[in-house]
Write a structure and sequence with these properties.
GO terms for molecular function: monooxygenase activity. The protein has 15 helices and 20 strands. By secondary structure, the chain is of the alpha+beta class. It has two domains: 243 residues, FAD/NAD(P)-binding domain, CATH 3.50.50.60; 92 residues, D-Amino Acid Oxidase, Chain A, domain 2 (2-Layer Sandwich), CATH 3.30.9.100. Strands 12, 13, 14, 15, 16 and 17 form a six-stranded antiparallel sheet that branches. Strands 6-2-1-10-19 form a five-stranded parallel sheet, with helices on one face. Strands 3-5-4 form a three-stranded antiparallel sheet, covered by helices on one side. Bound molecules: flavin-adenine dinucleotide.
């Protein structure tokens, strides 16, 4: 049997490798990270900056697990992961830390017949007769008929082979911290299936619910103000969160306590890199990319793992239906990604550019098409839009499903209505608060802001 090597055991590589092995392939899954230790709860994950950052998992992730890895889904539910369903019973969100998600999939991979998990760094993809013929792992060669690049957003080895991606910085900087509810304490206020999402003047703040009474608080800003970068210090972070009344409720010391340091994020990108070169030929026959290696989007919408698992499911389906002709499957997969994944990348670029303009003080611009987030927000005012935006919201319909709603959404904004901003410091007040908290003058400023 021709062996498949999957490079990268993140959420997408794990899912892909297990599902492929269950379809009868002989699979080797390689990651430089050795995986969680059985003896300690701490997993210092190398090379994945966002590992302990706030993750929320959308409905399609639950659907993907249910279809391909129902045992892993059952294991997640057994250890306190919660699936939130809509009125029709369809999954909307899954409350789970990313580390917990990966632990359970890692355990499923270790048990999976036909799948071998190897720890090592892939230094190169070996080429023979113009095809990928395997990988070099820490100097040792491993033959393979198909190499699957699930190495995420940053792998240098793969980027050199696959060419430049489209896209650029998404204008969102993250800082996050995980907490745990005290025994018997209820979560703080919520306004969405994932927890609490707040739009403030010039930045966002969220509380994502996770498994077993854990949750994350994240502040997202545009990353341009050096004063706000001090949010990475615990005293500054706690002070700012304490000045946003609805979030302050979440971290009230009687309710919850921190379980991680404050975690700053690196530069984030919207990126897209297909399988084919400009002439429509495979960049390297025998190599196919999946997950973040194909597409990354601003984490604000929590779409990354969903887009990765949607890709994985499509790739597996094409590999199965093109039995034996992996090159045809890869070409078909590329066409599918252009139709079903790239539109989300383009949607993020449009939304991010307009969000940055609005965060800097700009108003809704009615001289240009409205970005998707504003069309969705208009449904708060015009209830007749709600059903029509639901498909986009749940990712069961592409961004183009909103095109026909432009006129009605524009009418909402032309009437003068604007989405309500949450109570809390505006962008300049946030920066001031950071400065004061850095210099220790936290309590006075937080009290002033809270008392309005
Ligand atoms: C701050 C932040 C918040 C996010 N929040 C959300 C969210 O709420 N919801 C959501 O769905 N998505 C979110 N995302 C996106 C999500 O994290 C990614 O979409 C997801 O990690 C993609 O998984 P992947 O398996 O493709 O890649 P990765 O998770 O990056 O995994 C790649 C793996 O490849 C391994 N690797 C790389 N190179 C090599 C090599 N040469 N040799 C061996 N191993 C290698 C790495 O060690 C890693 O394990 C967020 C992203 C960020 C940055």
């Amino acid at each position: 049997m021709v062996r498949t090597v999957v490079v990268g055991a993140g959420p997408v590589g794990l899912f892909t490798a297990i599902a492929m092995a269950r379809r009868g392939r002989e699979v080797v899954l390689v990651d430089r990270d050795p995986g969680p230790s059985a003896s300690t709860a701490i997993w210092r994950r190398r090379g994945v900056m966002q590992f302990d950052h706030a993750h929320t998992f959308r409905g399609p992730v639950v659907d993907a697990l249910g279809a391909e890895l129902p045992d892993a889904l059952a294991a997640l539910l057994r250890i306190g992961v919660r699936v939130v369903a809509g009125p029709d019973g369809a999954a909307i969100a899954m409350h789970c830390r990313r580390a917990v998600f990966e632990r359970v999939l890692r355990a499923a991979a270790a048990r999976q017949p036909g799948l071998t998990v190897v720890t090592g760094h892939v230094d190169a993809v070996r080429r023979e007769s113009g095809r990928a013929a395997g990988v070099d792992i820490d100097g040792r060669h491993l033959d393979a008929g198909l190499v699957v690049d699930a190495s995420g957003r940053t792998s240098r080895v793969m980027r050199a082979l696959r060419g430049d991606s489209d896209g650029g910085p998404c204008g969102a900087a993250y800082v996050t911290r995980q907490y745990r509810l005290r025994d018997g304490a209820e979560p703080g206020p919520v306004n969405s299936p994932v927890g609490l999402s707040l739009s403030l003047s010039g930045y966002f703040a969220v509380a994502f619910r996770h498994d077993g009474g854990t949750f994350s608080i994240t502040i997202t800003h545009d990353g341009t103000d050096p004063r706000v970068r001090t949010l990475r210090h615990a005293a500054v972070f706690e002070s700012v969160v304490g000045a946003i009344p609805l979030l302050a409720d979440w971290i009230d010391p009687c309710r919850a306590y921190p379980i991680t340091p404050v975690l700053p994020g690196g530069q984030l990108y919207n990126s897209y890199c297909g399988q084919l070169d400009d002439a429509g030929r495979p960049r390297l026959p025998g190599l196919v990319a999946v997950g973040d290696a194909v597409c990354t989007t601003t984490p604000l919408a929590g779409r990354g793992v969903t887009l990765g698992l949607l890709q994985s499911r499509a790739l597996i389906e094409f590999l199965t239906s093109c039995a034996g002709d992996d090159d045809l499957a890869v070409a078909t997969f590329d066409g599918w990604c252009r139709s079903w994944i790239r539109p989300w990348f383009l949607d993020h670029i449009a939304c991010d550019a307009d969000r940055l303009r609005r965060w800097a003080g700009g108003d809704v611009d009615l001289t240009r098409p409205l970005p998707s987030d504003l069309i969705v927000a208009a449904a708060q005012k015009d209830a007749t839009l709600r059903g029509a935006v639901a498909g986009y919201d749940s990712m069961s319909a592409l961004p183009s499903s909103l095109d026909g709603l432009q006129v009605r959404a524009r009418a909402v904004y032309a009437s003068g209505w604007r989405p309500t901003l949450a109570e809390g410091p505006d962008r300049e007040e946030l920066a001031q608060l950071c400065v004061e908290a850095s210099s220790g003058d936290t309590d006075r400023r937080a009290r002033e802001l809270c008392s309005g």
